[in-house]
């Protein structure tokens, strides 16, 4: 019995709609974040596809669950069309193919397309008027270098036996054969895990820095407020006049040695023009005109954010100190043998659960 069309439609139609939505959201998101004069069409398109593919890979899981659950009825038995193992294998093949395509696309984007788009956009120079062919050659050169570095890391991950060591009395050839057998047995998973772990380590380091800075800077920014846009525009105008004066002076006494300095000043002038344009847009927005009404809410939100940051910092500090003193060590993943010491976040969560329980009992009593 063939697979019903409504089953395939119910599984793949929402996934297709989700992919289109991911593509649209990714384009709008990256377009809004990019500066107008620094927008590179290739980098923007590649970034949009990469973000959309990442979101689509996450959206594939509900489609997988929907197709698998559609094989069985309410009683847990296979439906008539899914009673044949060959029909179930067709659905499994379709889902598996979708996983391979999406994750293969992500690997291609991460290691080839995105590095090439990044290096291609970085080679753009409005002052020197670098040609497209020169940018292509330079981007290809750096992309190949990036692939070589990734290949070296993959090789290191392949030759490091992560599961077990070779026998101590084996010869050099036996050890090489052991490494090859380990690589074949793991199907390259250890090598890829090593490479991804290195990238995740760098990403986690940056995430910790930016998150820690944001948890402290955001409350201060909300409580202390910002300078008025009018004053910012006046300061930008003064800086622009100063730069124009320097440019005029260098132009009157122009020599070859001053050309590089003039390029830097013109770049700074373009940055100030972009900043002034954004400030003018801010001054014309409704939110800026209502800033005196929203100011008290900003102060309250800043205080709440500061207390939340302090709560998280104290909880993490106490939890790490507890693990350092009473855990089973790094070999066991710093697991605590006994219930951990309660942190402020634990106490707050327990208070919330207790309040919900009291509210539920009160509702039952009134009922």
Task: Please give a handful of descriptors for the protein shown.
367 residues, mainly alpha, 11 helices, 78% helix, 0% strand
Structure in words:
With 367 residues, the protein is mainly alpha-helical. Among the domains are: 5-160, no CATH class; 294-355, no CATH class. Helix content is 78%, strand content 0%. The protein contains eleven helices and no strands. The mean pLDDT is 77. One of its GO terms (molecular function) is cobalamin binding. InterPro entries: LMBD1_LysCbl_Transport, LMBR1-like_membr_prot. It is a multi-pass membrane protein. It holds the Pfam family LMBR1.
Mean pLDDT: 77
Globally, the shape reads extended
From the alpha carbons, calculate the radius of gyration and give it in angstroms: 29 Å
Q: Number of DSSP helices?
A: 11
| Low-pLDDT residue spans | none
Percentage beta strand? under 5%
Helicity level? over 70%
Let me know the largest β-sheet: none
Question: In summary, what is this structure?
Answer:
Helices cover 78% and strands 0% of the residues. The protein is an all-alpha fold and 367 residues long.
List the helices and strands and how they pair.
Blueprint: H1 5-33, H2 41-69, H3 85-122, H4 132-159, H5 172-186, H6 189-224, H7 229-252, H8 259-283, H9 286-289, H10 291-326, H11 344-366
């Amino acid at each position: 019995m063939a697979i019903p069309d409504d089953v395939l439609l119910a599984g793949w139609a929402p996934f297709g709609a989700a992919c289109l939505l991911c593509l649209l959201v990714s384009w709008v998101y990256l377009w809004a974040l990019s500066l107008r004069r620094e927008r590179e069409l290739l980098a923007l398109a590649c970034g949009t596809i990469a973000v959309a593919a990442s979101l689509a890979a996450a959206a594939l899981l509900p489609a997988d669950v929907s197709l698998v659950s559609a094989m069985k009825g309410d009683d847990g038995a296979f439906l008539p069309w899914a009673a044949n193992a060959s029909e179930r294998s067709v659905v499994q093949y379709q889902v598996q193919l979708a996983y391979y395509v999406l994750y293969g696309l992500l690997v291609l984007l991460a290691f080839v397309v995105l590095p090439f788009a990044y290096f291609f956009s970085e080679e753009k120079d409005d002052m020197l008027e670098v040609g497209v062919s020169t940018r292509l050659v330079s981007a290809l050169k750096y992309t190949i270098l990036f692939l070589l570095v990734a290949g070296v890391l993959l090789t290191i991950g392949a030759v490091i036996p992560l599961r077990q060591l070779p026998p101590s009395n084996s010869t050099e050839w036996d050890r090489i054969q052991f490494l090859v057998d380990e690589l074949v047995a793991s199907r390259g998973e250890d090598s890829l895990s090593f490479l991804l772990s290195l990238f995740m380590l760098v990403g986690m380091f940056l995430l910790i820095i930016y998150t820690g800075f944001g948890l402290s800077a955001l409350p201060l920014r909300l409580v202390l407020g910002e300078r008025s846009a009018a004053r910012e525009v006046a300061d930008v105008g003064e800086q622009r006049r100063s730069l124009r004066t320097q440019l005029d002076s260098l132009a009157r006494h122009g020599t070859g040695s001053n050309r590089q300095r003039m390029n830097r000043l013109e770049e700074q002038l373009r940055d100030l023009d972009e900043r002034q344009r954004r400030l003018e847009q801010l001054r014309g927005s409704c939110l800026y005109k209502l800033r005196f009404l929203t100011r008290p809410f900003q102060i309250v939100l800043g205080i709440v954010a500061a207390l939340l940051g302090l709560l998280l910092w104290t909880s993490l500090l106490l939890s790490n100190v507890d693990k350092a003193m009473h855990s089973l060590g790094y070999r066991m993943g710093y697991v605590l043998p006994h219930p951990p010491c309660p942190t402020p976040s634990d106490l707050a969560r327990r208070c919330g659960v207790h309040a919900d329980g009291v509210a539920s009992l009160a509702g039952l009593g009134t009922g």
